[in-house]
Amino acid sequence: xxxxxxxxxxxxxxxxxxxxxxxxxxxxxxxxxxxxxxxxxxxxxxxxxxxxxxxxxxxxxxxxxxxxxxxxxxxxxxxxxxxxxxxxxxxxxxxxxxxxxxxxxxxxxxxxxxxxxxxxxxxxxxxxxxxxxxxxxxxxxxxxxxxxxxxxxxxxxxxxxxxxxxxxxxxxxxxxxxxxxxxxxxxxxxxxxxxxxxxxxxxxxxxxxxxxxxxxxxxxxxxxxxxxxxxxxxxxxxxxxxxxxxxxxxxxxxxxxxxxxxxxxxxxxxxxxxxxxxxxxxxxxxxxxxxxxxxxxxxxxxxxxxxxxxxxxxxxxxxxxxxxxxxxxxxxxxxxxxxxxxxxxxxxxxxxxxxxxxxxxxxxxxxxxxxxxxxxxxxxxxxxxxxxxxxxxxxxxxxxxxxxxxxxxxxxxxxxxxxxxxxxxxxxxxxxxxxxxxxxxxx
Length: 443
What we know:
- The chain is mainly α.
- The protein has a single domain, classed as Ammonium transporter AmtB like domains (Ammonium transporter fold, Orthogonal Bundle).
- The protein has 15 helices and two strands.
- A hairpin with a 3-residue loop joins strand 1 and strand 2 (about 110).
- Helix 2 (about 35-65) runs antiparallel to helix 8 (about 240-260) and helix 8 runs parallel beside helix 10 (about 305-320).
- The longest helix is centred in the first third of the chain and has 34 residues, at about 35-65.
- The model is unreliable at about 1-30 (pLDDT under 50).
């Protein structure tokens, strides 16, 4: 056999082998091109959604670490319950109220009430729109934002609120308050039509939780012994700072899903590049907030304060949430750092007003939510300062008024605060009959 014949035979065999995958591909091994974007965006929503879901663990650990030992189990119970309630309420009412499509009851203001529905199994015999993502993945992702809003309220009102009134408020918050105002921006409502920009929810999520928590704190009142008659503030140290630190890192991790998934598409190279930019900006904003709080507490108190540094990192994350895409790394760091400074200043300011916020959620989520929404105008040329301020005020007034009404009704009908004896003994035993650390209990 000649070399030419030999090599010709090998070449023919190679061509035949290469041809086999081609025939397999033609047999529908590779999805049609129009499905690729649908698949990747759906996958993005699922992955970023469970990252945001993991933030529920972060809030739980943060709160469990910052409350006193005798109230730890109560915070664990509240966070598991509020997440579960949010899942049901968002399914029954919230999702379609937030994304009414053509189903506005009052155009741009209030959507129609209906139950969320998913696609049929396997998309069989349907003409599904493949230009976006599956309804199931979008519902799953958006639900996590709703649950996050409720988590914010939990920490502020810790150590003196009854369980069931709190959970009833969560029902109203997740079924009505959050979805209605969110529809004004993310559902194509009137704020969106005005050009309001809030990429991942500095206002739509974080300030909403902050306003609801503020109204609850004002109506509920401070913890017994927190403020002396002479105006002195008595600190109540948390029971487990390692747990609080773990919770902060879990929230930091979850925030990559919170902001990254809000890009809403992963169907092009440009969108993937933007998601990576969002991740980097989110991370550096948190770092900027933590470092700013570290330095400022050293200057103010002569020693750095760990709890302030933890909240400084969260403040940076909230601050960058309204616009994590357009800033440079330097600008994102500065935005986060300003958030960290605001938290350090806002905590003692609230104490002067005798507003008792156990975990610092109002400074982190409300104050920095407002700051982050305003900061959009410095990096996004499409943002209007007037529109951003107007939207902050509209959402703030709506959430504050409705929340206050609900809190007052609950206070008048079933009471929202535990008795003085129960508060002194701790809510774990009084409300739940169990302790988180029974081996360390006195007596």
